[in-house]
User: Fold this.
Amino acid sequence: MEYDFKEIERKWQQRWAEAGTYHVEIDASRPKYYVLDMFPYPSGAGLHVGHPLGYIASDIYSRYKRQKGFNVLHPMGYDAFGLPAEQYAIQTGQHPAVTTEQNIKRYREQLDKIGFSFDWDREVRTCDPGYYRWTQWAFEQMYGHYYDTAADRAKPIAELEAHFAQRGTEGLHAACGKELHFTAAEWAAYSDKERADVLMNYRLAFQADTMVNWCEGLGTVLANDEVKDGLSVRGGFPVEQKRMRQWLLRVTAYAERLLQGLDGLAWSESLKEIQRNWIGKSTGATMFFPIKGFAAAGEGAKLLEIFTTRADTVFGVTFMVLAPEHPLIGEITAPAQREAVEAYLAETKKRSERERMADTKRVSGVFTGAYAINPFNGVEIPIWVSDYVLAGYGTGAIMAVPAHDSRDWAFARHFDLPIVPIIECDVSEGSYDAKEGRLINSDFLTGLDVKEAIPAMFAEIERRGIGHKKVNYRLRDAIFSRQRYWGEPFPVSYTADGIPVLLPESELPLLLPEVQDFTPTADGRPPLARVDGWGYETSTMPGFAGSSAYYLRYMDPKNDTALVSKTANDYWRNVDLYVGGIEHATGHLIYSRFWNKFLYDLGYVCEDEPFQKLVNQGMIQGRSNFVYRIKGTNRFVSFNLKDQYDTQEIHVDVNIVKNDVLDLDAFRAWRPEFKDAEFILEPDGRYVCGWAVEKMSKSMYNVVNPDFIVDNYGADTLRMYEMFLGPIEQSKPWDTNGIDGVHKFLKRLWRLVENVGDTPATDAELKVLHKTIKKVSDDIENFSFNTAVSAFMICLNELYDSKTTARLVLEPLVALVAPFAPHIAEELWHGALGHPETESVCDAPYPVCDERYLTESSFEYPVSFNGKTRFKRTFDLSMTPSQITEAIAADEQTAKYTDGRAIKKVIVVPGKIINIVC
RNA sequence: GCUCCGGUGGUGGAAUGGUAGACACGAAGGACUUAAAAUCCUUUGGCCAUUUUCGGCUGUGCGGGUUCAAGUCCCGCCCGGAGUACCA
Assistant:
């Protein structure tokens, strides 16, 4: 019987669905394992062949773990709120809910064809009210909590109020927007509005006036990770800075824990590094510089506060720089400089964020006419204003040390300011930024190494009371409002004077109302403002809201009294393996960790980190094919002959090209203008196409649909081929050439197992089998699926040669291959191998490697002289190195190859190699 | 600019410091077939031998180094990709 993949795959996909083969429940008798894929945003374009790559890898791992005896949770769902559906709605008038539903249906059909072991009973959709109820709930919890920096966890806002009532801000340890100081008496005297404003400064979900990334093209605010190069990630529209009142999440309160938590995670170093950089911890000191002409202490005192990580360089400070937005500028600017400063401020205001980013090398600035006084030596230091200092980081002011900071150096050079080195070095061509060397001209620090000087200086600053040690993070609070329709509504209304009022938890979810028009209102308010009688917040939550806790919901997806029950959470705990793209490094993967830690603080989840191990699958690029048209004609010349003509390169649909050879008839039928195409062929009569690696996109005609592969080769071939393509983490072009090799493997496997009998297995066959078990198991554990597939091929080549029919060999082989090619394995398991229908191969015990077959009794050693292989000899493995040495010395070949030179040394690595040094 | 990751045949890619190029594609030749498909066999890094294919040289971006032995480790370059962007 032939390998009829179509029939086999149809049959088993249907039976798995009917039998609920992949349904999982809590089972205390077995250890759990949670394998999660990043759920997709269901776009209108459907899946291309690159999308399932990670899903296939995780599915193989899930099936492997299941066969190993784990109770595996492997769910799937949809990240269904988002901008594209809404943009589409604006263009076509189709409601996002309708297109989203259609897209999900299409996704599901495509996914189902690939034979995944998802438990679809646990499907979640972020746009489902039963789901977003818990997104809104979490928001309300964040609103109701603040972060206690002493206890290092979130606490109810009521505790904060109690503290204020008792002691004001005295002895307070709380993460906040700005430092506030008031007494208990003052608190008692505050109005409701004033108290609400004070509390807002501490809530973990809070409102604030903040500079936001405003995207006019999308009509909404975007988070930092949704903006790249000054353009929106979705749509590529320009983004500008604008001051707006927004909801935010106080992610910064968790900065240190987000950073520390990385250490214990089995994530790739590069991913951790991206998160570390994004959090951007820097340890330094804030220091106060007196300003000439202003009091340094007492009533009306003016001090310039700066942040620096290089306090040791304070004797090299030759000027100070303020950000153009710095509040002190107006007060300290000397009358003579006022005009110039104002002109500069006006000019920088005009320059957009994009322009500032575009020419970071341009040096600009203006002198204020004011001077700061170096608290260590009393030297007067001119204060400048420049846009290379950012208002949003540190204190918006720096002490400039041009000798040891490249930006300060460039500034000093441009404005001809002095450059004073305090470490022995040459600063004529550039600054010396390295944190090493011995200090000079630095008073009490002179002679110290930089590494000693930094802590010494911190101590001195604190001793003199002119500043203190301080840790700064680059991480910003996450802006949580979007001026859009297709997202979770905020369950918040406002009193007449603007105090937020939460919808009681019992009344959640607050349903997203229907609208007809998805565009902003004429006065620029979000679409929800169009809804009559909508008494709630009109912005909606961002995309990351719904994806921040979905992994918890899968544990208990139908629970309508809690996000996840304690029982379910105690059993499933957190995600053991998370597979997805690295593009979420600074978005979803930060927000989820924050969200989880918050819920952990409140006792709703039992693990501090959501994703224990994380694998980033690479992106699959397109491999485009080209034909070469002779300019101005309808004649096409083959690749190797194209240089003889004046040609034009045209993308051709990769689906009508096989192994770079064009299907001429298919080409003529492809598009009407090629109906009468003529071809200049290679001498062997073929038309060869050129190729290039590009992004997979419709316009390049290089999109390969997984359905097409499944129809022509089967899901098992697709699964194995995607794995065979290369290391999972690596980005690589899709190339359908080569798929025949994997398909051939499955056909041979079919033919071999079909003839299974109860014949005995030879030692050689068992050896091959057990080596393969070992190799494949190790490879799966290491996520090296490409080499695992190779191991299968090597194994089959050998078994095929020996025409094995032994059940003892073939049955374990089928169980071993089942995670990769579940359909064929299932069919063989029941058909040729005769297992009853009730025993799915999914639960076949994973084959155990018998170590006895792995050991060798003898080994063919290559014998080398001075590193070059000269001959091979077989030695007994039980021989000791010295016995081997003796044997070699006695060998007549040895004499021949040494040319009479004496043997100095014989190096024997058991099982590997022998090298003779002459 | 900084950080990280890479650079191996015509192609995708294998190689705990130990016979580089596994496995697969493609290509060439052959068997079977009326023919095609399918299947199977042989060859396939380069150069040079070939008076018996079971031999020689060379070879993992470039230049050095460590080692009996380097694709692998160290130093310095070159090239490509990703992240980040005035973060003090």
About this structure: Chain A has a mean pLDDT of 88. Residues 763-781 of chain A form the longest helix (19 residues). The longest strand of chain A covers residues 205-215. DSSP finds 29 helices and 33 strands in chain A.
